[in-house]
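thought: fold this chain, then report.
action: predict
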Amino acid sequence: MRLSLFIAKSGHASRRKADLLIADGKVRVNGRVVREPYFQVGPEDSVETGGKRLSVVEKLYLALNKPEGVTTTLEDRFADKKVTDLLPEKFRGVFPVGRLDKNSSGLLILTNDGDLCYRLTHPRFEVEKEYVIRVSGFVPDDVDIRARKGVIEGGEHLKALSALIIKRDKKSTLCRVVVCEGKKRHIRRLFLGLGFPVLELKRVRIAGLRLGDLKAGEYRVITKEMIG
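observation:
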């Protein structure tokens, strides 16, 4: 690949900054200063800048079925167990994409690809996330209309793209909910505002990636293309 691209993929600098480093004679390939950004390098070449040898960081993508009781916030030093504790050491460096609160379960994507994380979490991209939830009480048939209209809670407009009833029993209702936003505790706050506290919440889809038969606490390696 091109030398400037190699430096950018190593995470040492942006493509533009890499071009400047190369032009300033601060990059060596196999011990020789190279000033051409388009110089081709391969896996066998040694690329150094500032006395530091660079290597391309492999992009990793994992799908995890997060169990209840496990924390996604890696900075929470009081957490009993974090999602990264469920992964082997070889996946050190990946981070969760988006939120899934401690008392919720289901599909969580972990990666070291910051660009993908941005595209999946920023509201402007309107990425669909699908959940199966159990709420307290008998939910009426017009819940889809009410959920799409939404509620105002804490100064935020919380709404769903769709909310469909799966089944009811005497004390609770099972629903399938799709949202395109990721506000903190979004669905729990929305349905509480509608008068139906959430008892259980499980995420089953993010964009084109489904949880499938992945068991609680298990993960699988995926590709970026599988997410869609």
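thought: worth noting. The chain has a mean pLDDT of 92.
final: tokens above.
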